């Protein structure tokens, strides 16, 4: 787990993320946001990312999380826990590890965006992300077929 920003007050939002992209780089990310005050809300956010096979989808995970982070930043949410099903992305952020060259700018951009929250954590998602990922994959496949 990695936490960024300053400790804050108010309810924390839990954002579980699922995503998929087509071969042409058009992707969609879903986030199920939950908090004590407002209950549950599902966001859908399109994004673009050229899949790089050598990165095994890691760059797609960065792009999907960045899209959701930007969307959440537009709201009044300042404390959030992002759950994403990519343990490498989580480790990159938590351990400040060196990333492959194609991830350098996405990494820096994502860290900057996360630092805009009062408090932000990025953790490995559990089973809840599978449903959102399946939804995103189905949408991506339907778009290809259409």
Mean pLDDT: 89
Q: Which segments are poorly predicted (pLDDT under 50) over 5 or more consecutive residues?
A: 1-7
Helical content, roughly?
25-40%
Provide the succession of SSEs.
EEEEHEHHEH
CATH class call: Alpha Beta
Percentage beta strand: 25-35%
**Termini separation:** 39 Å
Using the coordinates shown, work out and report the CATH topology.
Answer: Nucleotidyltransferase, domain 5
How many domains, as an integer? 1
Instruction: Label the overall shape.
Output: globular
Describe the biggest sheet?
A: 6 strands, mixed
**Count of helix runs:** 4
Number of strands: 6
Find the CATH superfamily.
Ribonuclease H-like superfamily/Ribonuclease H
Specify the CATH architecture: 2-Layer Sandwich
Structural class: alpha/beta
Radius of gyration: 15 Å
Strands of the widest sheet, in order across it, are 1-6-5-2-3-4
In short:
The protein is α/β, with parallel strands linked by helices and 146 residues long. 37% of the residues lie in helices and 31% in strands.
Report on this structure:
This protein has four helices and six strands. By secondary structure, it is of the alpha/beta class. It has one domain: 2-Layer Sandwich (Nucleotidyltransferase, domain 5). The chain has a six-stranded mixed β-sheet. Helix 1 packs parallel to helix 3. The longest helix has 18 residues, at 128-145. The radius of gyration is 15 Å and the shape is globular. The relative contact order is 0.26.
């Amino acid at each position: 787990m990695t936490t960024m920003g300053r400790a804050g007050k108010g309810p924390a939002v839990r954002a579980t993320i699922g995503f998929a992209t087509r071969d042409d780089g058009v992707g969609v990310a879903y986030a199920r946001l939950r908090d004590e005050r407002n209950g549950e809300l599902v966001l859908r956010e399109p994004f673009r990312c050229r899949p790089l096979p050598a990165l095994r989808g890691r760059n797609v995970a960065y792009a999907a999380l960045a899209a959701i982070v930007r969307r959440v930043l537009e709201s009044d949410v300042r404390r959030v826990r992002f759950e994403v099903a990519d343990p490498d992305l989580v480790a990159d952020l938590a351990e400040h590890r060196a990333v492959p060259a194609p991830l350098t700018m996405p990494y820096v951009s994502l860290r900057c965006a996360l630092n805009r929250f009062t408090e932000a954590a990025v953790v490995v998602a559990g089973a809840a992300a599978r449903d959102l990922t399946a939804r995103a994959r189905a949408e991506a496949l339907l778009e290809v077929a259409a």
